């Protein structure tokens, strides 16, 4: 498994309660799902469904998020009002 660093921005950061967190996961999608499911409060899971995810300024599409990871990665998590999608 690889380390996926989720770097939260704006409302995603507020919902997560942290600026970054590191999860071990085989894909970015698995890391995002684990981040949302790993809390008693569902606010982060609710926010994550409307976020955009970027690596090195490049937007990750659904198929990108499902690809197996072969190295550690940092993912920017942007809710809609911070530049994310709808």
Number of strands: 5
Q: What's the CATH H-level homologous superfamily?
A: Beta-grasp domain
Shape summary: globular
**Per CATH, what is the topology?**
Ubiquitin-like (UB roll)
What structural class do helix, strand and pairing data support? alpha+beta
Kindly give the count of domains. Answer: 1
* CATH class call: Alpha Beta
Helix content: 25-40%
Strand content: 25-35%
Q: What's the main sheet like?
A: 5 strands, mixed
Under the CATH scheme, which architecture would be assigned? Roll
Order of H and E elements:
EHEHHEEHE
- The tally of helices reads 4
- Radius of gyration using CA atoms only: 12 Å
- Alpha-carbon distance between the two ends: 31 Å
Protein name: ThiS family protein
Pfam families: ThiS
């Amino acid at each position: 498994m690889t380390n996926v660093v989720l770097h939260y921005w704006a409302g995603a950061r507020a919902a997560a309660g942290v600026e970054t967190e590191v999860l071990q996961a085989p894909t970015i999608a698995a890391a995002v799902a684990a981040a949302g499911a790993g809390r008693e409060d569902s606010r982060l899971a609710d926010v994550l469904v409307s976020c955009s995810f970027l690596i090195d300024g490049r937007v990750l599409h659904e198929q990108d998020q499902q690809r197996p990871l072969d190295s550690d990665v940092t993912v920017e998590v942007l809710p809609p009002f911070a530049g994310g999608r709808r």
